[in-house]
């Protein structure tokens, strides 16, 4: 059965560039995600996130498609897929799967950016991010900031703003409760804010791209044989493991929208 995106949610994605789904993450899934992420942070230590990028003021994990079935379950969630298809069209794939914890008492924030530095092309939008809120997002702990409607501008903030790190007069903070899910057209200008509290702020970021674009992290090169052997057909397809065109596109690796 095809899952339909409610009209009000579709309109928000079209007009504002993002939508928040309240209480989307079931309590058991939430618990298993946090437990697995904490175990990985402990095991990887200072090397956490090194497969892709490390970031001042935050702890990251990368290559999570290779680090637990609980993450793969998120990647192939059919309801999430319906929202992705609304933005990207019917054919898309996982681009990268990472976790980010904004450190407590951190003044570091992200400049406004678009993911992968991407602008829409003649075929339309081609990047979309899903932010799985594993902690509350508040005005004080590093919530996401966005500038609604900028996904329709055809511009990147670094090309038109004097200071992409400065507060934008039209920006809003995307706050929410642990268990919410944010789906965001990644051509939308956005960035993380400073965490001024004494606790981390944790989220899972599952980032997708249209089928004809390179993955930010080339999944086929990162997965261990044991992981590949256990994948469902849906997961293999979402990771583009059997797509020679993706091999040609993605072998050189992708980039982040704001980190050099």
What does this structure look like?
The chain is an alpha+beta fold and 260 residues long. It has a single domain (7-239), classed as Sandwich (Jelly Rolls), CATH 2.60.120. Helix content is 27%, strand content 19%. It has helices at 7-15, 27-44, 69-75, 78-88, 157-160, 219-222, 225-229, 233-238, 244-250, and strands spanning 18-21, 58-61, 92-102, 127-133, 144-146, 172-174, 181-185, 190-192, 201-210. Strands 1-7-4-9-3-2 form a six-stranded antiparallel beta sheet, covered by helices on one side. Strands 6-5-8 form a three-stranded antiparallel beta sheet, with no helix packed on it. The mean pLDDT is 94.
How would you describe this structure in keywords?
260 residues, 9 helices, 19% strand, 6-stranded antiparallel beta sheet, globular, alpha+beta, 9 strands, Jelly Rolls
Put the structure in a nutshell.
With 260 residues, the chain is an alpha+beta fold.
CATH superfamily: q2cbj1_9rhob like domain
Looking at the structure, what is the overall shape?
globular
Radius of gyration: 17 Å
Structural class given helices, strands, pairing?
alpha+beta
Domain count, please report it: 1
Strand order of the largest sheet: 1-7-4-9-3-2
The main sheet comes to: 6 strands, antiparallel
Beta strands, count:
9
Question: What share of the residues lie within helices?
Answer: 25-40%
Kindly state the mean pLDDT as a whole number? 94
What CATH calls the topology is: Jelly Rolls
N-to-C CA distance: 43 Å
Low-confidence stretches: none
Q: Can you identify the CATH class?
A: Mainly Beta
* Assembly category: single chain
Number of helices: 9
